[in-house]
Amino acid sequence: MKILVVEDEDSKISEWQDAIAAHNADEENKGFRIQMTTSKNVTDAKRQLDLHRLDAVVVDLRLQVEPGVADNNSQGNDLVRHILEVQPLGVVVYTGQQADADTASYDCPQVRVMDKADGMEQVFTWLGENKDVFLRLRGAKSAFNRETARVFFRSIWPRWSHWTSSTVQGADLTEVVARHVVAHVHDSMLNAGGDATHPEEAYFVPPLKARLDTGDLVQYDGGTWVVVTPRCDLANQGKVATILLAFCEDISAKWKELEASGNANKAAKDMKRLIQHEGMPKQHFLHPMRDAAGQARGPWMVQFHHLKAIAAEQADLAPGIRIP
91: which strand partners? Predict the structure, then answer.
């Protein structure tokens, strides 16, 4: 486990080194080793984030802004917010001033705030509890880099001169390349996996846009509905006066019954039939999912013959009624 410890006191850094050495000496029982990189100030910490592939960061709140410049501050809050914007990592705020942790601005309940008085072992315990997440994320980065290399050498580099000479006016070429890479990597990884996906991949949780968009699930009029108005009509505000919704019939009871069935073969066939919309074009199966609060939802069967139109102005209320 590769971690960055952001701490500006030499004595505390020595304590971290000793604690990690003790942890690693018992690696077989602990289940993982820890490799530590340290920073004493925000500027260097940001540099280390760019230089190293890290799994987690442990941040003290009161840090030197620049080397040798120390005062009573909470620069660690700024660093945490920076990490949440630029890196998918585990984050621990390890501080003697828990009240100074600006958790509201983090907007991420996964950031753990720990009291220094409770010792460093709590950090190691938390790393162990989340080890599988961090290792999966490391594997995901490796897979993304592998497929990005393929796109780069086969597509982007050979065509680079055409990219630069034909860039659309006002387009950011960096963003163009990023979209090109992401689209190709997604398709390539789907192909490599035989188009097999996890049900949760069908959803963006939370939604990517503040306004309603095609495919959004909403809680409305006592039920669950999916937005079916074409995306091109929703792209420009004011283009349509109404938004069309299709009713989502909750089939979770039937799904759970099949999951608990003692006849695995028959249950698998019945579940496959549900996933294939029970052979009826007037409906469409939506996989079960978990919302942003972790609550299980669905699955549903969209009923395209059961429609409802709502005023477009209600799209402004979307964050309040959307399921994710």
Answer: 57
Q: Are residues 58 and 111 in contact, defined by beta-carbon separation less than 8 angstroms?
A: no
pLDDT of residue 224: 93
Q: What is the pLDDT of residue 315?
A: 62
pLDDT at residue 86, rounded to an integer: 92
For residue 299, whether the previous peptide bond is cis, meaning omega lies within 30 degrees of 0, is: yes
Query: Would you state the pLDDT for residue 69?
Result: 55
Give the residue from 67, 65, 72 showing the smallest Cα distance to 96.
72
Beta strands in 7-99 (DSSP E): 35-39, 56-59, 90-95
**β-pair partners for 247:** 225, 303
- The answer to whether 275 touches 254, Cβ cutoff 8 Å, is no
**Residues linked to residue 219 through DSSP beta bridges, in sequence order:** 224
- Reading the block at residue 258, the tokens are 């099949």
Neighbours of 150 (CB within 10 A): 13
Q: Determine the Cα–Cα distance for residues 214 and 232; give it in Å rounded to an integer.
A: 9
228 contacts: CB under 8 Å, gap ≥ 6: 214, 244, 245, 246, 304, 307
Both tokens of 257, joined, read 């019954």
Evaluate whether 258 touches 272 at the Cβ level (below 8 Å): no
Average pLDDT over residues 186-207: 81
Instruction: Give the closest residue to 38 by CA, choosing from 83, 5, 10.
Output: 5
Judge if pTM exceeds 0.85. Answer: no
- What distance in Å separates the CA atoms of residue 92 and residue 126, rounded to the nearest whole number? 9
The answer to whether residues 94 and 40 touch, using CB atoms and an 8 Å cutoff, is: no
Classify residue 245 by its DSSP letter. E
Does the bond joining 230 to the residue before it have cis omega, within 30 degrees of 0? no
